[in-house]
Amino acid sequence: MSSNKQIHEGETALCTVTQIDNANVTVTLDEYDLKGNIIFAEISPGRIRNIREFVSIGKKIVCKVLRKKEDYIELSLRRVTAKERDAILDKYKKERVLSSMLKPIIGDKAFEIISDLKKEYPEEDILDKIRENPNLIKKYLSQTQLENLKNIVAEKEEREKTAQGKISIKSDSESGIIEMKDALETKDADITYLGSSQFLIRTKAKDYKTANNNLDKVINTIKEKAKSKHLHFETK
Predict the structure, then answer these.
(1) Whole-prediction pTM value?
(2) What is the distance between the alpha carbons of residues 165 and 218, in angstroms, rounded to a whole number?
(3) How confident is the model at residue 184, as a pLDDT?
(4) Sheet holding 161-170: strands in order across?
């Protein structure tokens, strides 16, 4: 297991939930292979009626480091901002896409290469860089493997791109269902109800930038409608 000296208080990290008991949630910090602990008070600012609305075994969550102990890290889920969470989850999703492109070519060695690339380009979007110029990783591949990668990149670029985000809308009004339905009404996105007042918003376009811009516009429109109707709105 890695040393906790590699991570600092105040940092955010992608974690995987491994255990839930009566007062704590145990996770593994993916990037550091460290054990973390979240007390229920750091899951959500309000009263928790059902902990599995927030976490479940195997779920990927973004947490903030509160304190470093000798054997584990004290973490918080509720102190992570939507911007921090979205940035890390977006990076994780893109790494999975890159892995899916490399694995058919080089198998499990893909994970090793992605790890090396993250060290080489710590502040940059690796997937976007390789989309723009696959030759960036030619030192890791044979010429045949590199040509295969270029073909895969080209095929994926031809497909329609999808952006998605989660929101929560709640109402204290007797007419809340009608008001929520009106706030969510749009022809510019696909909206799926996930349960517990949460919705998945999806937009599609020919490129990721346009899809993400469209997603932001749809969510902002829903937010403004929710505000005008005095609904409780939150980006998840």
Answers:
(1) 0.61
(2) 10
(3) 92
(4) 190-195, 198-205, 161-170, 232-235
